[in-house]
Amino acid sequence: MGEETRSPWIRDLQWIRAGQQSRSRKTQESLLESAATLLAEKGVEATSVADVAAGAGCSVGALYHHFRDKKTLLYAVFQRMEEEVRATTRAAVDPARWEGASVGDILRAYLEFSQEVARERPTFKLAGLAIARHEAALRDHLAEFRIELAERLTELLLARRSEIGHPDPPLAVAFVLDQLSAMLSARLEHGEPTRLAARSDSEFTREALRSACDYLQIEPPEPGRGLPDPNSPKGASR
Fold first, then answer.
1. Do the beta carbons of residue 106 and residue 176 sit within 8 Å?
2. Which of 47, 61, 113, 124 reaches 20 to 30 Å from 5, CA-CA?
3. pLDDT by residue (tens digit) across 109-126?
4. Is residue 57 a contact partner of residue 145, using CB atoms and an 8 Å limit?
C-alpha cells in the first residue's frame, strides 16, 4: 500500500523490532529469524534444530550455545514475538496519536496496519501461532495479546461514542471489533481461501469498513484526511 493511499493516522507507524547489540546477540537474532521462518512454513514438528542452524548460517553447536534445546528455542521465538507485538500495540493505540481522529479513521487504520504487518512481517506472527498451538502454556499469552488490543481499541472508540448512531455503543463496538478481527484472521492467518482472497487489501479494507460504518451508524472516514499539525493549536488539521 503506497504512502499516497495509506491512512494518514498511521503514516509514521512501523512494526517495532527488537534491537540488536553484540555479535553474540546478532547470532541469536539470526537463529530466531531462521526458526521463525521455518516454523511459519513447516510447523513445529517438521522444523528441526539442524534446519534452524543451517538457515542462520551457523553450526548446531552454536545454536545450543544460545538455546538449551528445541523447546527453549520455541519459547524464545514466542517471547520475541510477544515483545514486538506489545511494543507495536502500545505505539499504535497511544491516545495521543489519535487526537482529532474519528471512529472511522481509527477503524480504517486498524484494518490497513493489520494487513501491512501481516504482509511485511509475516514470519514471527505465523510462527507464534504455530508455537501456541503446539505449546498449551503459551496459548493464554496469545489470547492476552488479542484481549489487550481489543480493550485499547474499545477505549479509543468509546471515547468517541457521541459519533456512534447505534443505540448501544459498547455492544456495537464489541460486535464490530470481533467481526473485523475474525475477518482479518481468516484473511491473514488461516491460510485457507476465502471469498475475498482474490481482492486487494485496499478493496477488502473499503468493504469491511463500509460494513462496520453502516452497522455503527457513523460517517465513513474522509479520504485524504491529514494528521493534526503538532505546531498548530490543539485539534487543528493540516
1. no
2. 124
3. 999 988 888 877 777 778
4. no
pLDDT per position as a tens digit, 129-143: 888 888 888 888 878
Scan for cell 520475541, then name that residue: 80
Would residue 63 count as lying in a domain? no
178: containing domain: 81-216
Tell me what pLDDT residue 3 has: 47
> What DSSP designation does 121 have?
S
Rounded CA Rg of the chain: 20
The torsion angles phi and psi of 228, rounded to 5 degrees, stand at: -60, 145
Write out the H or E segment, with its range, that includes residue 212.
Answer: helix 201-216
User: Cα 57 to the chain's mean position, in Å?
Assistant: 29
Query: Distance between CA 160 and CA 173 in Å, rounded?
Result: 11
All three cell numbers of 59, joined, read 553450526
